Amino acid sequence: MRILLTNHKLDVRGGSELYLRDLAAALRRRGHHPMAYSPFLGRAAEDVRECAVPVVRDLSLLDDPPDLIHGQHHLPTVEALLHFPGVPAVFFCHGWLPWQEMPPRFSRIVRYVAVDALRRERLITEEGIPPEMVEVVPNFVDLERFRPRPQPLPGRAKRALVFDNHAVPGDGFHHLAVTACEERGIEVESLGVQTGRFLDRPEDILAEYDIVFARGRAAMEAMAVGCAVVMCGAEGLGPMVTRATVEGLAAANFGMAALDHAPRIDLIRDRLDQYDPVDAAAVQVWIRAHAGLEAAVDRIEKVYADVIAGWSGQAAVAASTEAAELAAYLHLVQTLVIPQATREAQGHSELDIGRRVSAARAEIGVLRERLDAALEASTASASLAGKSTGRVESLQADLELLRSSRAVRLQTWLRAHPILAGSYRLLVGGSLPKGDREM
């Protein structure tokens, strides 16, 4: 099958971008011909290309139409539908809130896929998609990349990681997680876009941490490695994932629906107190048995095949029908999408300003503490220097006094006259000072 996968952006590595990359790579390994389209390309697009999957920002570069459009995000999905008339599509919904996840309504979108029950609820209840057109295919982990840690978790947690693209150091849940861990002597590090530390291969370092604060895909990757996971994100705080809760949390995609508390320091302490290496190992076993990439691709591949087989016998959608559907879609874009996108951009701007102010205040506080410490050290050094100067001056006075004494003047004169020095020793029955014996 020739599969065209769309995404709003392929610039930075996020959830849908990594989903597309892993799925495209798996499809290619199975002999299909995936290709990706996004108007905004960057590092994530390079990741896809490294999997030997072509990526374009202009659909006119694709000479042959695909057999199926795998749509992620409505704008590029609709663009692909209009560019390739007669090609059926499947729309994948990855988010509950983002405006990009609004499902378009076109006759050629014959199946909708949600990654969990909450997204399915959005498609059916809020968007009016018929239930029989919606399937749930949960998110997955590439188990070949995220291998089990070589050693079991220690009895007491020593290192923790805040693993989230939206975590801002010194702010929100990140600050609380760091504070709670430091109280227990747990070293904390961060990984994510906002932290300034983002790795191409997080699988190379996850095994170095005992506890990981994460949600969604990042949480699943940490569990697959064998870390104990506290569900946490910008939306709120969830539980420590245990063997008793992992199945229910998986049904919620380890996402927003499970983050049911506002982050509080006492709740995070409680999660840390639940650290259990044996239970975390049991969670790892469940994840690796039920959340692997290949099982998910089996289901997605079947959805593709069913859609193509069912579509081949249908007549082409009338141009007038598609024109009416396009008009309805543009109406939604104008009345719902643009206002929501504007509000979201404004909210992000205000939130970013607030975070910058908080970060600046935190940095000023640290600098003030360092300045106070430097001033205190400087004062102590000045006092010590004064005492040392007085001691040196005292020793110099004693030395001058000693040099002026008759005994020293006599010894100095005798050093200049070796013969007389021998006579001096015979007379006094002694010797010159020890330091003078080499003369």
Percent of residues in helical segments? 40-55%
Radius of gyration: 36 Å
CATH class category of the largest domain: Alpha Beta
Largest sheet: 7 strands, parallel
Plain-language structure description:
The structure is a single chain. With 439 residues, the protein is α/β, with parallel strands linked by helices. The chain has four domains: 2-137 and 293-316, Glycogen Phosphorylase B (Rossmann fold), CATH 3.40.50; 159-290, Glycogen Phosphorylase B (Rossmann fold, 3-Layer(aba) Sandwich); 318-402; 405-436, no CATH class. The chain has 13 helices and twelve strands. It has helices at 15-29, 43-49, 74-83, 117-126, 172-183, 216-225, 246-251, 265-273, 277-290, 293-311, 319-404, 406-415, 418-428; strands spanning 2-6, 33-37, 55-56, 68-72, 89-93, 109-114, 134-136, 159-163, 187-191, 211-214, 228-233, 236-240. Helix 1 runs parallel beside helix 2 and helix 5 (172-183) crosses helix 8. The chain is elongated. The protein starts with a strand and ends in an 11-residue tail after the last helix. Residues 430-439 have low confidence and may be disordered.
Question: Which key features would you list for this structure?
Answer:
439 residues, alpha/beta, Rossmann fold, 7-stranded parallel β-sheet, 5-stranded mixed β-sheet, 50% helix
Give me a quick take on this structure.
The protein has helices at residues 15-29, 43-49, 74-83, 117-126, 172-183, 216-225, 246-251, 265-273, 277-290, 293-311, 319-404, 406-415, 418-428, and strands at 2-6, 33-37, 55-56, 68-72, 89-93, 109-114, 134-136, 159-163, 187-191, 211-214, 228-233, 236-240. With 439 residues, the protein is of the alpha/beta class. A 7-stranded parallel sheet has the order 3-2-1-4-5-6-7, with helices on both faces.
